[in-house]
Amino acid sequence: MKNKVLVFNHIFWPDKINTARHISELTEELVARGWDVTAIIGNRYYGSPKEKIKPEKGIWNGVKYCRTYIPPFDQKKDIQRLVTSLWLVFSWIVKLPFIGKFDAIIIGTNPPFVYFIVPFIRLFKRKTKILMWGFDLYPEAILVSKGKSIGFFSKILKGVAKYCYQRLDVIVDIGPCMRTIYREYQHSAKEATLPPWSFVEPDILLTPHLETRKQLFKEAKLTLLYTGTIGNAHEFDNFLQLARVLKNRNASVGFCFAGFGNRFDDLKSQVNEEDTNISFGGFVETDEELEQRLSSADLMLISLKKEWTGISVPSKYFSAIAIGKAVLFSGSEDSALSIWTRDFELGFQIQDNTINDVADILCEIANDPDMISKIKENSFKSYKEVFSKKVICDKWSILLEEAINNNNF
């Protein structure tokens, strides 16, 4: 008889935002590895909350699913997102006594504070192993965004989080910097680092899509691309300063920022007519367009504010190395992305005091493109061996087996 796994997460197929795709693909991959998987999820698109997803029940690529009703709240507004989170958690708690027997339950971290459900799972499903896949940390993400204004409430929330974490069997983080924060809660759960994979995984190193490259970067010899969300967790000041230093040196280096987010307009407003080596691109709808855009760049720009270290790990990093791109990371040296970039020789790091040093390196590369070939090969090889969907999902399957079969967890 197949072991049964239940997954709780707000968003799921056919929603296309990152967390939905990662959770959906994980369930699909577990089915392919012989697991009996059921997903209990929301019934609305994250970005289009007025639109319901039907049918309410069904089977997708072998994964049984059941959708929970959610009011049409806007997930881009903090209060409405919080109400959605509490709505889902309460709805799932009510369902717990009636959902049947499962060997393991996986909870995502969307919606925020979904870990509130953990004590109730422990109450109603005493023998079931509980695993949490942490993509984001709450209340830390709120605290770093809002500051001391919610300091009192953060103490209460951290106390509740500690109580919940101490009842988990396994905490799966997506980077060692995140694990450090989880350990502050003094939990006794087994730890595992299983980062999110790229949605584009070519079998060979991609050659640049020349039409897209010219469209985004004109005739630049060396191209740097930022793609994806530019939100509260991301910074772009170091990249803008770097672009201006290179412009003043007449270096043939082009920058493109292609994405969305609540700080994207702020970035565009800071770029002026003199920044002729900076361009912008919109959101792409298909994996083919994404692959063409990613292939057009030599280096991928990745950023994370220092105060967000461990709270979030940008998934665009894995998209970059999956196609064999060097990365230029702006963030803390303690970040998992800094550690992996150094350990696997995947690219470069930039701080506000190293901008000129990085500019020197990029000028050299622009004049001698072969300098970056080894880094690209390291990126492609490291992704295949350490970070690919197959590798990560194989580890997920092994982790579930160990959790279910080991009573000492």
Give me a quick take on this structure.
The chain has helices spanning 18-32, 78-95, 118-124, 140-146, 151-165, 176-183, 210-217, 237-248, 264-270, 287-295, 316-322, 336-343, 355-367, 373-387, 389-405; strands spanning 4-8, 36-42, 57-60, 63-68, 104-107, 129-133, 170-173, 190-193, 222-229, 253-260, 278-281, 299-303, 326-330, 347-350. By secondary structure, the chain is an alpha/beta fold.
User: What sort of overall outline do the alpha carbons produce when their principal axes are compared?
Assistant: globular
Spatial strand order of the main sheet: 3-4-2-1-5-6-7-8
Based on the structure, what is the oligomeric state of the protein chains? single chain
Distance between the termini: 22 Å
CA gyration radius, whole angstroms = 22 Å
Share of β-strand residues: 15-25%
Low-confidence stretches: none
Q: How many individual helices?
A: 15
Please describe the biggest sheet, giving its number of strands, its sense, and whether it closes into a barrel. Answer: 8 strands, mixed
Query: What is the string of SSEs from the N terminus onward?
Result: EHEEEHEHEHHEHEHEHEHEHEHEHEHHH
State the helicity in percent bands: 40-55%
Structural classification: alpha/beta
Question: What is the arithmetic mean of pLDDT?
Answer: 91
Number of strands: 14
Q: Care to describe what's here?
A:
By secondary structure, the protein is of the alpha/beta class. It is 41% helix and 18% strand. The chain has 15 helices and 14 strands. It has helices at 18-32, 78-95, 118-124, 140-146, 151-165, 176-183, 210-217, 237-248, 264-270, 287-295, 316-322, 336-343, 355-367, 373-387, 389-405; strands at 4-8, 36-42, 57-60, 63-68, 104-107, 129-133, 170-173, 190-193, 222-229, 253-260, 278-281, 299-303, 326-330, 347-350. The chain has an eight-stranded mixed β-sheet, with helices on both faces. The protein has a six-stranded parallel β-sheet with strand order 11-10-9-12-13-14, with helices on both faces. Helix 8 (237-248) crosses helix 13 (355-367), helix 11 packs across helix 14 and helix 14 packs parallel to helix 15. It is globular and about 65 Å long. It starts with a strand and ends with a helix. The model has no long low-confidence stretch (mean pLDDT 91).
